[in-house]
Amino acid sequence: MTSGAESGTAVSLQVSGLAYAYPDGTQALFGVDLTITRGERVALLGPNGAGKTTLVMHLNGILTAGHGTVEVAGLPVRSDTLREIRRRVGLVFQDPDDQLFMPTVREDVAFGPANLGLRGAELDRRVRDALDRVGMLEAMDRPPHHLSFGQRRRVAVATVLAMEPEILVLDEPSSNLDPASRRELAEILRNLDVTVLMVTHDLPYALELCERSLILSEGVIAADGPTRSLLADDELLAAHRLELPYGFAPSAHPR
Amino acid sequence: MHVPDGFFDVPVSAGAGVVAAAGVAVCLRRARRELDDRTAPMAGLVAAFIFAVQMLNFPVAAGTSGHLLGGALAAILVGPATAVLCVAVVLLVQGFFFADGGLTALGVNITLMAIVTSVVGWTVFRLVTRSAPRSRTAVVVGSFLAALVSVPVAALAFTALFWLGGTAPIEVSSVAAAMGGVHVLIGLGEGLITALTVSSVLAVRPDLVYGARGLAAPLVLRTADGEVPVDRPAPAPAPRLGLRPVLVGGGLVALLLAGVVSFYASSAPDGLNKVAADKGFNANEKPHDFESGPLAGYGVGGIENERLSGGLAGIAGVGITVLAGGAIFYTVRRRRQDKAVV
Amino acid sequence: MSAGHHHALYVPGDTPVHRLPPQCKLIAALGFAVAVVATPREAWGAFAVDALLLAVVAVVARIPPGMVLRRMVIEVPFVLFAVAIPFIGLGERVEVLGVSLSLPGLWAAWNILAKATLGVVASILLAATTEPRAMLLGAERLRLPSLLVQIAMFMLRYMSVILDQARRMRIARESRGFVARDIRQAPVLARSAGALFIRSYERGERVHLAMLSRGYTGQMPAVHDLPASGRQWGAAAVLPVLALTTALIARSLA
Fold first, then answer.
1. Against a cut of 0.90, is the pTM above it?
2. ipTM of this predicted complex?
């Protein structure tokens, strides 16, 4: 299913020179360059208002670039490629209630693959498989609003996994989770064999899950490197309004 | 609180069903044009909003409270076609999922509460905003009048249907007068909350108010270094501009008055007056009962005593309307003139 | 409309009534209501038969009678209306305990009470035995415009989310000492309503984006097939057919 192989490249996501201004004139992105290779788990760090959400909206063509390009496994994001792009890029929204709009978990997870034209046994297999990967198979026939917040976020991940995406993009995956749900989600994400881009300002979570981090600040990539060394650089963090929780020392946390 | 089964005979129920289906069909097409593929989620969320806002109790008078119907509010916020769909869906869901409102009365309920309130509300709103200069005040005043008028008109439409195929032997003119009168008062509450709600949305996200779409556009100037917002110059205090809404409002009030007058002209001795004169009739119950017509939901318990007859209430209601409308227009025009001077 | 009203009436169960396809039940309930409305009001017996029919359905569906009674509270405003009609009605009058009542008015009150009660109980039984999701699928099967069904689907999905928001806003108001006493408090409530609208609208936009992200192109994928066999239609038809027969017999006798 991974069509990246066809294009003969191991790059999952390539963003170059991306600039964007909102219709009201506010410019949010000022030339973003980044490359993520297949199988990587990368954290995109940045303070509020850095343009993280704007960047994410470009990755599956909800917003279209004012300047520059976005390519997913070699396929450029353009209006004529949107359908395939949206299959390749699985976007998990911050509020699972936005994402889980169907009456039951089963139908919600089936929504994406059904839009791709799957029906019957194949559709059912995809749904079960995706729910199984996030440990929510038993919730299949329940309405989403009867689930806990953490469960809803896991189902939200499943809705995207069911599309068998090239890259999974998570917007603040740890927000509003209690410690147990947070750990459970981390275990699920760590065991997924897909490329992950995790947008967050939860630095310990980034350290726990991603070897590599990018810092997006004022509309550009301000730093790119191993998470551990970025988080150890107090000056860098302070320059971009990023802070570790009190008493947290990255070096003390073996992966 | 919707009309249950048994209020209307089969032909009227079926006829209203046809009207409702046709109206909803038209609105389905128009809403698609307005909202494109966003129609389903947007209208669904707005329907949920209307459902929630109908539960928001607000005080009408001392010790009593009511809630919003929302037809006019929805029309101004999301456009008339979408509003009809939203309210119709709310009614369908209430009928089928909550057993609220008779299944055979769905046609009547949708016709009155979705179509009549939204369309009348929107028409009044357009009349007001078109004849006044484009301003936030005009939108707010238009919202007030739209909601105010939509409620008694729907009540009168209910009365007309009742006259056609109601199952109770009540004199139509007395029902009309009582319904109209009570609902003018209810409409005042609806108008107030609608206007305040629209105004609060305008203050934060003016782009979301369908009825104020033309409002934001002229506020931005395109200059060499991007878009620069500018303050709107105070509109010229041309007397012609402020006059038409007054005329329109006056015309509608006159219509209402006409209904009340005709009630007095035709009122038989054994109409409401007679009944009210009867000691056996507990005046406390009547207003509540009429109020529990299709449009109700407002407790107006605080005002029963003055309602010795439906007609009296009608007059009181119309009087209040005229006074309130006059006062609003007076202040609006004063403020506009003040602005022009400054 | 009272608070607490947003709890769906569905009572889970596995009875023959629960198992009937939703489209059959929708038509049966509608047909029953029409038959009741078409019954002449003088036909006391016919209404008794209708009530008996509903009682049988309730017993078969194992719906607790208490639950049905509690839900019937929704009728109360109309009971009050019906009670008033004999006082204000026209026509021949009779003295009851010294109070002059209209005879046609009494008939009208009885008519509304009887029919509204039967109608509301039928609706309660429909809602109690049909899962909300199934109800939507049934409506779709009955060729209700799919856009309308989708709007209802989104409304049902987000109703509790938005009511929760409304509740949190109320708690926030009240915890800062706000009491809605009279009309002067209206601006505060209206601001809440305005904020609620903005939140609902913005959520609608986000939901739309979430749909787009998963390949939505304006059509909901039709993955459900909810067939109803002739036998099921036949079983569902028993209720409205009996009610209609009763109404017809009552009419011919009247």
1. no
2. 0.89
